[in-house]
Amino acid sequence: MGTVFSAAAAGAALFAVRRANNTADSVARIERDRWHTDLTPRLHLEIQQNPHLRLAARFDGPAGLRVLDRLVLTIRDDRDRSRDNQLAGTATPEQMAAIIWGPYQFRPRMQGVDDTGRVAELTELHLDDTWLLALDPSMKPRWYEGADGHQRWHDQYDGTPLRLWAACHATGHQPWTLPFTITPPTPPEATG
Length: 192
Description:
about 190 residues, alpha+beta, Immunoglobulin-like, four-stranded antiparallel β-sheet
């Protein structure tokens, strides 16, 4: 009888230990998530025209983070075109994906910018540091042909916001991916 009681007590103790470990793991996970949220980087992104078009990216905090090892800015399209119907004789999905469907692109191959002008990778962005990235108007697709193709493209995106993903990487932390929608400056002649 004593052996049965001891086995039952040992089983109950083992169950209690497992339950306590699961609770401790849950609390630790909640605390890590809260801490990660508290350390979400604050970025100030602004389009400037002074005198050239550029994106100013400033790391504003939090003070507990102090430095971003890497900041990857990716220009987002104005909308998701991956599910658009493909008509015969139109652009392929790959050709559609290669176009930046928005007002601006980064100047390719400058300051950590890829060949497409879609992605800029900045390293070691310290608290209160500002990086300046040259912007150019996005390039119209080659199938925007005809005399009015360039003008149609320009009219489609004139004054529209630049949409970005900002992937923030800091040693010892899971990355943060933040969305941004940045309104371009109003041209001086429009403020008249």
